[in-house]
Amino acid sequence: MTRLTWQFLSLLPALAWGLPNDEILNRGEEHPFIHVPLAPPDAYASGEVHGLMMQMLETSIAEIEANMDTLLLNLHAITEYTPCVGGYAGTEEGNTYSCNNLDLYSFTPHADLGSKTKMGNDIWGWTHTEEDGTREFALVGQRDGTAFVEVLPTGQVSYLGRLPTQTDNSTWRDIKVIGNYAYIGSEALGHGVQVFDLTKLLDPSLAIAPQEFSLETGVAAHYGELPLGASHNIVAHEQKNIIAAVGAIPRNHSCASGLILIDVSDPTNPTTAGCAGQDGYVHDAQCLTYYGPHIEYVGTDICYAFNEDSFTIYNITDPKDTSVISTTAYYGVSYSHQGWVVDEQEQSYLLLDDELDEVYQSGWANNSHTVTYIWDIKNLEKPVLTGHYSSPVKSIDHNLYVHNGWAYESNYGSGLRIVDVSSVAQDPTGGSFKEVAFFDVHPEDDDVGGEAKFYGSWSVYPYFPSGYIVVNSIERGLFVVKYNGSA
Ligand SMILES: *[C@@H]1O[C@H](CO)[C@@H](O)[C@H](O)[C@H]1NC(C)=O
Ligand SMILES: *[C@@H]1O[C@H](CO)[C@@H](O)[C@H](O)[C@H]1NC(C)=O
Ligand SMILES: *[C@@H]1O[C@H](CO)[C@@H](O)[C@H](O)[C@H]1NC(C)=O
Ligand SMILES: *[C@@H]1O[C@H](CO)[C@@H](O)[C@H](O)[C@H]1NC(C)=O
Questions:
Q1: Per-residue pLDDT tens over the stretch 143-177
Q2: Which of the ligands is closest to the CA of residue 254?
Q3: Does ligand 3 have an atom closer than 6 angstroms to the CB of 2?
């Protein structure tokens, strides 16, 4: 990975890895779609493509950091309900957001959530059921740790405390929950997986005096068996009490940066259960027990994985005897990043986001409008790319989650975009997908119709019973929004 390569790529995005211009631009709409990856296989396998992407993100964050004082001058917390009126929520310059059908309930800057680095990343949620109802908590990833907040019934938040990073600060932190425990990984070397007992957040004194939990006594456990302690993402197979740490470098380790499967049936004693390294580096995944139409696999534990240059499906039923069911490349593949099944019971369709197609204008993303890839997964051994959805605006897509027929897409510079995908079985081409709401947390690129750049919304959690949706913006903080439309 040389400096020259970075420069070459950033200057000539359409000519990445020397592909002739017309080969990139004229790939057409053929079916089956012609598969021409962005880069040669060894550039993916070596980590060069991933390294490039991480570098682009770090560069973007450094630019924001350098200009933060002027750029985000008016960035105060918004603690009042701020409805989306006439296409905007808010009134102050730099703290006003374009929107449709989503009202703002609160905005809290990272600094007010105890972060010194003031930069966010992943987010997840925890719902606690009590006799008289439920309480909702957001776990907000930041460069220097994880902030814990309660999302109150009013949509305001109460900051309760934080768990610092285990070792260094890092742009990448990822969080998932099983039961009453959060599992937190990071790209920071030596970090491992922190296990945090979320019932600690029920202590009423925290709302008055937020606490910095100690790495020694504030955690339920620490999993220290990742090869270098770093991981890119944390995946939760809730039904089986399995956590998968993925993208754990180095790539030449025995698990090849694949799925490192951790048994958390006793959260206070996480143990290595096995590995799935057959297809090398796994960037992100969704692991579920299979109930779909492929009869042979009913009851099998499946991971749908996003492996840079492919969509790969694993059988992880026996963590000590895992296997690959299929590895499929696709039209426009540039960086297979993350995805989610449309329906966790049916498991017939899946939506995938590619993180570099908009940057390099590959395939359907040739105009940099965010592309969501639609897969028919009824045959796990032969998933079929059936179409795509193209966003009305430009931006890179990051994480997406599906809930009750709507895809909640965290699309960096264009913020949270909610797409009604309930038509997928009738029309798997995506022709009937429709955006029903958005909340754009990065106003700076609105005037130019959006840009395929790395800033804005990192992730979203849409599963709270109250309907509050929490969005973590890289440079700003935590947004709590709620759908106000009539669908
Ligand atoms: C983008 O691709 C579409 C077909 O998917 C094609 O009609 C269009 O001309 C392409 N645009 C550019 C700028 O290449
Ligand atoms: C993280 O960054 C902050 C702000 O620069 C700094 O104060 C803190 O010491 C850093 N933490 C670690 C563990 O390096
Ligand atoms: C793995 O790769 C690293 C460089 O990233 C190298 O230092 C190390 O020797 C390699 N280990 C093996 C077992 O090949
Ligand atoms: C899935 O893996 C398990 C464990 O190795 C194996 O017993 C089972 O036959 C596999 N399922 C299918 C459908 O191949």
A1: 999 999 999 999 999 999 999 999 999 999 999 99
A2: 3
A3: no
